[in-house]
Amino acid sequence: MPRVGTENQSVEQFLDRIADHPFPPHLLKKFSDDLRKVAEELANDIREAAPVVTGRLRRSVRVVPAKNNKHGAPLQYFVVAGGPLTTVAGRGNYVVPLTAQERPKGAGFRIEKGQSIAYDYSEAVEFGTKTEHAHPFFYSTAHTDADNVKNEIEQAIERDLTFRLERIEDWW
Question: What is the pTM of this model?
C-alpha cells in the first residue's frame, strides 16, 4: 500500500525536541490541526491524480495519524492509498510482486496461474504489471508536492509559535 510520511530529518528532529520540551496542550493541538490540514491537501492532490474506473482507488486515499503518538496530539500523519476498497480477488490468475533478484530496477509484478489470492490493485496501478502500463498517481504527486508540503509545514509551525510568543509577551 503506497504511503507518504515524514522522512525529513528536520521534521524528525523537531518532533524529538517537542518530546523533550513539551509545549502546552492547546499549542500541540494547533500543530496537529495544521499538520493534518497539510496532509489532507496532499491527499486531495493524490486523489485528483488517481485514474478513475470505479472511483474506489480515489476513495481509498486517506490521511491517518501515526500510532506512536506520545505528544497528546498527533504530530505525524501518513497519506495512504489502497486497503479494503482496492483489494480484490484474482480470477484464475494472480499478481505476485517481483523479488529483488527478479527485478534489477524498480518495482514490478508477475502473473501466476493457479488458485486466486486477494491483492491490492492500488500498487498495480501505481507501478504497472506485466500486462498493464503503470499509471503513477501516488509517489509522483507526493514528489511534485514535496517542497510545497515542507514550506506549508514550516509556515504553520512558525505561525503557531509566533502566535504563542505574542501571547506570552502580552502576558508579561
Answer: 0.69
